[in-house]
Write a structure and sequence with these properties.
Blueprint: E1 2-4, E2 7-9, H1 17-29, H2 43-55, H3 60-76
Length: 81
Amino acid sequence: MRLINQSWVRDPGRSDTGCKNLAAEAAKRAKYRVNYFGTKLNEGELRAFEALAAKRNQTQGELIRGLIMASQLAYSSPHHR
């Protein structure tokens, strides 16, 4: 298979196994964490954030993701509606 003019075209003499592998790889990539967000902190906020991450023995990214996921879970609960 190869991409020609935004369409996948099967190469002559090749099986469809390549298509199946491409689909499997696309499904696998869909689970990757590829999006991010950022914010600006003043010096005091940054120090407090770094201290919290260190206290929890987490990287800054792990801490932020955990906080976001916990917040989403809390707001999706039936008690919050």
